[in-house]
Amino acid sequence: MANYINEKHRQIDFDPYTLPIIALPEVIATSFDPIGKTPIMIRIADKDKAFAKIKDPGQYQGILEINFNDINEEDDYWGLSKKESDEMMLFNKKHAEIIHDFVDQFDEISQIVVHCNAGVSRSSAVAMQLAEYTDDLETYAKLREIKRYLPNTRVLAIMRGEEF
């Protein structure tokens, strides 16, 4: 987390908190002050996990809460065990559709704040793909510069409409 929070270690020449689309860890997102008057938030948590309370939910024109686990079955050498399959939810096309439909319902969005537990893989994948989806290639390029982000390849591919 150091290279994200600690400005000395960011190794980027821009303030990531001011990007039109940003991925954050839950601990920061719950008290984050978004930019502009029309921000939205996408909250990601594991299957059946409760979301932490947001300090001021009224500052968002819309909040989407969606549950899926940070797993990628193709990267799992052994495959998912029955217990893992029963207890976890893989990201799927329906999740992507829900996220895109949520974003599409707003005429104006000043900032899209996406968070998951750690703010590393699920939220960064969603943020990067939403930058592509909204044709904001400058933000997409900047998101790719943030070394903290390790986008979940399954989430990114499925959100792009690719087979996985």
UniProtKB/TrEMBL annotation:
<dbReference type="InterPro" id="IPR016130">
    <property type="entry name" value="Tyr_Pase_AS"/>
</dbReference>
<dbReference type="InterPro" id="IPR000387">
    <property type="entry name" value="Tyr_Pase_dom"/>
</dbReference>
<feature type="domain" description="Tyrosine specific protein phosphatases">
    <location>
        <begin position="93"/>
        <end position="164"/>
    </location>
</feature>
<protein>
    <recommendedName>
        <fullName>Tyrosine specific protein phosphatases domain-containing protein</fullName>
    </recommendedName>
</protein>
<dbReference type="InterPro" id="IPR029021">
    <property type="entry name" value="Prot-tyrosine_phosphatase-like"/>
</dbReference>
